[in-house]
């Protein structure tokens, strides 16, 4: 005659009030069997004196493992929205068995707790409203979070050309309005590079550059030439004999983006003063 284990008692765990320890008894010997969540306790109608077959115990434990993975995921989602891949990676880090990860993500999607398109759209809106990131950086961020290319494209449609234009325009104007000893062209090139690094495309950057004021106050530009030109004179006069240093200085200032007429003005005035 096969004797099935019997539930001897059920106790509440001290550190997790929604979990219960199930103690079994066989041949008058009582021992700890397993633990379950409160929902499973109710689902399987577990109670003292109940006989459990090995298959029932296995089924209960499998359901409980899946439920643990689910509650882990819900807790992880409570801090902020997550992509499906983020949930999967998190459960892997928590050493959840692979067979339960698929069950959990399917349930979370069914319950609307994870939705990669909703997640992607929310992230795009957040980056547009709270950061200077352009669409290319946001696209990379979504890819890193495992969002598919199709869903990423759909979400990035929220980041319209007009919104990109506005951000790039502010960024470039801020760069150009800052006091600088560089040439206007150097400042403009630096602003372009910053916009590229922020993740904006050449199309919107070119459009902004084409519409902003492309000139700088002549005296500001000349002051920048004097600042850089005097350093170059000191550098090349030590290396070049005769008037060779002038050609070197002129070429260097031209490479830095200064206009030829202001370079000549600087060299003429420098020659008069020295």
UniProtKB/TrEMBL annotation:
Name of the gene encoding the protein in the UniProt record: recX
Gene3D superfamilies assigned: Winged helix-like DNA-binding domain superfamily/Winged helix DNA-binding domain (1.10.10.10)
Similarity comment text for this entry: Belongs to the RecX family.
- Species name: Gracilibacillus salinarum
Residues annotated as domain RecX first three-helical: 69-108
Q: Where in the cell is it found?
A: Cytoplasm
The name this protein carries in UniProt is Regulatory protein RecX
According to its UniProt entry, what is the function of this protein?
A: Modulates RecA activity.
Domain RecX third three-helical per the UniProt entry, residue ranges: 219-267
HAMAP family referenced in this protein's UniProt entry, alphabetically: RecX
Q: What sequence ranges are listed for the domain RecX second three-helical?
A: 115-156
Q: Which UniProt keywords apply?
A: Cytoplasm
Report the principal subcellular site: cytoplasm
